[in-house]
């Protein structure tokens, strides 16, 4: 007898299939297509591991490069501020002005604890002090040179014979 929803009566195979689809129906046997899908999924997992292994060194180089660049920028800011502190100490009006040795000591004391060195032997900056003039006003010029150590790049450049030297220069008018 035809069902009101279908034009033709369900076949016997269709009825058996419908009866087996209940919650306690036996699981179908593994088909070859299912095995291929599983193998494809495992191959994708292996491909992801290989791609990660290829990308990881580049990501680490980018990360370490960003850290090294940040350290270089920090050390550059330190020597710039050290040259400003030295020039400021030298131009302040006093009864006895500071000598070049005293100004050099101010700069080196500023950089002593501020420069990042990661436990390496500290390299003191080279300080050059000179007098100049800006129109009718006398000026003090403090120049600071520092060889950047860093984590890897500074040492690599130093090993290759071209160390990374940072320079800062401050010009201030005497009070």
Would you mind describing this structure in some detail?
This protein has 175 residues and is of the alpha+beta class. It has one domain. 52% of the residues lie in helices and 17% in strands. The protein has 4 helices and 3 strands. A 3-stranded antiparallel sheet has the order 1-2-3, covered by helices on one side. α2 packs antiparallel against α3. It is rod-shaped.
Features:
175 residues; alpha+beta; three-stranded antiparallel beta sheet
Q: How are the elements arranged and paired?
A:
Blueprint: H1 12-20, H2 32-91, H3 100-114, E1 126-134, E2 137-147, H4 153-159, E3 165-173
Antiparallel strand pairs: 1-2, 2-3
Helix pairs in contact: 2-3
User: Helix/strand/pairing class, anyone?
Assistant: alpha+beta
Portion in beta strands: 15-25%
Distance between the termini: 114 Å
The total of helices stands at: 4
Number of domains: 1
Strand order of the largest sheet: 1-2-3
The level of helicity is 40-55%
**Number of E-type strands:** 3
Tell me, what's the shape? rod-shaped
Poorly predicted regions: none
Radius of gyration: 38 Å
Order of helices and strands: HHHEEHE
Main pleated sheet: 3 strands, antiparallel
Query: Whole-number average pLDDT?
Result: 80
């Amino acid at each position: 007898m035809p069902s009101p929803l279908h034009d033709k009566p369900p076949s016997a195979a269709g009825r058996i299939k419908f009866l087996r689809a209940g919650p306690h129906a036996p699981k179908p046997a593994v088909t070859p297509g299912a095995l291929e899908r599983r193998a494809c999924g495992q191959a994708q997992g292996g491909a992801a591991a290989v791609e990660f292994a290829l990308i990881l060194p580049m990501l680490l180089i980018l990360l370490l490069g960003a850290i090294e660049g940040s350290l270089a920028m920090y050390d550059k800011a330190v020597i710039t501020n050290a040259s400003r502190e030295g020039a400021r100490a030298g131009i302040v009006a006093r009864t006895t002005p500071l000598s070049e040795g005293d100004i050099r000591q101010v700069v080196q004391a500023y950089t002593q604890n501020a420069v990042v060195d990661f436990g390496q032997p500290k390299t003191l900056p080279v300080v050059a002090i000179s007098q100049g003039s800006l129109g009718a006003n006398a000026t003090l010029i403090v120049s600071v040179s520092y060889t950047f150590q860093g984590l890897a790049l500074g040492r690599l450049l130093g090993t290759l014979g071209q160390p990374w030297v940072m320079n800062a220069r401050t010009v201030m008018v005497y009070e």
